[in-house]
Amino acid sequence: MTWQTRGGREWTPDFLVSINPDLCIGCGRCFKVCGRDVMTLKGVTEDGDIVELDEDDDEELEKKVMAMNDADACIGCGACARVCPTNCQTHQKAA
């Protein structure tokens, strides 16, 4: 599916479909550029489980990572991919 920008240029949305927690460093750059609540910050335990963040969990977490929050809210703008320093996201063109 190809759309047009306001200026008439062709544009194909590229939707965020997943985030690799092994590559994500939890920097939050993608979260800051996305105004649609597509992602959220979560914690990773020693066992590799992705969990909701809780104020008491900080000492028990291995790291924090971005995770999908509302994939259906993504408009395919690609801003998150452009700011990601680890290329941990997978995007898919609109069908």
List keywords for this structure.
95 residues; mainly beta; 3-stranded antiparallel β-sheet; two-stranded antiparallel ribbon; 2 helices; 11% helix; elongated
Descriptive account of the structure:
There is one protein chain. The protein is mainly β and 95 residues long. The chain has a single domain, classed as Alpha-Beta Plaits (2-Layer Sandwich), CATH 3.30.70. The chain contains 2 helices and 7 strands. The protein has helices spanning 29-33, 79-83; strands spanning 3-4, 10-11, 14-19, 39-45, 50-51, 61-68, 89-93. A 3-stranded antiparallel beta sheet has the order 5-4-6, with no helix packed on it. The longest helix has 5 residues, at 29-33. The termini are close together.
Element layout with pairings:
Layout: E1 3-4, E2 10-11, E3 14-19, H1 29-33, E4 39-45, E5 50-51, E6 61-68, H2 79-83, E7 89-93
Antiparallel strand pairs: 1-2, 3-7, 4-5, 4-6
Question: Summed up, what is this model?
Answer:
This protein is mainly beta and 95 residues long.
